[in-house]
Every structure is written in C-alpha cells, then in structure tokens.
Amino acid sequence: MMALNRERHVVGATHAARAQMGLPPACDVSLCLMEETAPRSPLREAQAMAIRTALASAGGKVAVAARMLGISRSTLHRKLRALDGAQAAMRP
Predict the structure, then answer these.
(1) Which residues share a beta bridge with 2?
(2) Contact at 8 Å (CB) between 7 and 32?
C-alpha cells in the first residue's frame, strides 16, 4: 500500500510496497508515479495497464479515458506516446 498526495507523488509506503519498489525500509519516500523517466517497474506496468483499461472502457475515446483516469487529455496523449516509444524500444 502506498500513500499519495494530490499531485500523485508517493509520500509513504508499507514495507511490502517498499520491497516491491526496491527502496530501503527506513528511507523517506518521495517519488512521482507519473514520471516517464523512471525505469520499467511493476508500477510502470500497472500504469500502462490502467491506461489500456481506461481506453478500452471508453471505446478508444481519449477524452473520456482521461476523465476516467483523472488526468488531462494532453497528459494522456503524452503517456500514450511514451508507452508507444517504450514498446518500440523493446521490439527486436
């Protein structure tokens, strides 16, 4: 379990969440789940799955999916470009 502030920055995490993120148990937590610069992790994968699920639920309509995710349409477009770039980089 993680605690997020209004800007969706992680401000606290349980021992299990810290272990999953590779953080030492006694350190302060301050990271943003929405940054594209962070390495691929289970959290990044969860974000990608949430975006794909919202798009599928919205019938491919970006504006509707963005509202479902609580982000702006332009932010969702930026995240989609980042996901496309990451998938292209992983292809042989």
Answers:
(1) 13
(2) yes
